[in-house]
Amino acid sequence: MPAKTANLVTVKHRVSTDQRVAANKHQSGVLWFTGLPGSGKSTLAIEVEQKLFEMGWQVYVLDGDNVRQGLSADLGFSPEDRTENIRRIGEMAALFADAGFLVITAFISPYRADRDLARKASGERFHEIHIAADVEVCEDRDPKGHYARARAGEIKEFTGVSAPYEPPAEPEFTVDTASQSVDESVSSLMTYIEKTFSS
Amino acid sequence: MPAKTANLVTVKHRVSTDQRVAANKHQSGVLWFTGLPGSGKSTLAIEVEQKLFEMGWQVYVLDGDNVRQGLSADLGFSPEDRTENIRRIGEMAALFADAGFLVITAFISPYRADRDLARKASGERFHEIHIAADVEVCEDRDPKGHYARARAGEIKEFTGVSAPYEPPAEPEFTVDTASQSVDESVSSLMTYIEKTFSS
User: Fold this and answer.
1) ipTM beyond 0.90?
2) Interface test with B, best of A42, A62, A85, A95 (most B CBs within 10 A)
């Protein structure tokens, strides 16, 4: 076998996550936000991303805005499609964490079994964060008018109205957005993140 | 509307890719490697990743090892499944580039139309790199023994043997791995990357 050919089968060494963590000077992981529509998931994710970026962290938000029209453009909102959507996001988030990122996912992710599958994809790096507010509070806010449209029957299978939400049984952290302001919620999240992901 | 509620609908500001590029001190983008089985895609991707990481770059390789058992675990190797596999990788790579990474994808990606779709997902950040070697050369190397098994009919729809490969018409860069050693190929890639993605 000539040398040029032999080279192609030498053992490959990927850059490890530990090496990336050392270079980035913070732990990597998945902050999996889950909660009802209007609970504040996306708002808090983007606020926290901004703060961590300013601290020099490698941080990225996956949410409906950048996933639903791309990776999951072929999926709707039936239970099967929601499950597949969350499965893909769980796998993608695991790769972002493997690449050294602290990735924040902001999806309703209403089914416990789906979130458990996402946890499995990332293992110990997975942190389930319950963005908690009662459906009454969320419906009262209704920032996008979706609850009103769901009540009118214009949106089908809307979580909290015509589709179920299964709250986490043992989340790593809970943010009470019903009684706390956005600033207070961001602050409590930042404390949790700095405590957990600083290296 | 009370202040706490109003806060939730304030305009959100994502961290932009430009901000990430400025912080990382290199451009982000997708290096889309395409070529026959055995052409050297994965080997070169991992070698280049190592070198760029040592230079302090945010770089990550997506290949069969980390995608086929996760994000695309539900897909096989039929033309339809290959197309869907490449579509998902194209969308995921676009998000990695959006997040500031130089991401290297190492997949056969045999169909021109599929690669064009991946290009569309990333726009100007997409660089198609042809890892070019004749099927005779690749089959002679056969690092995993797949060509032999394909010839024996043990692997169906194997690119280069029983499934087509459509070479890129206008790749941004071509690496001739038939006549160059691995070191020479890595070197030519590094020159291209530093020229194109340094900031």
Assistant:
1) yes
2) A95
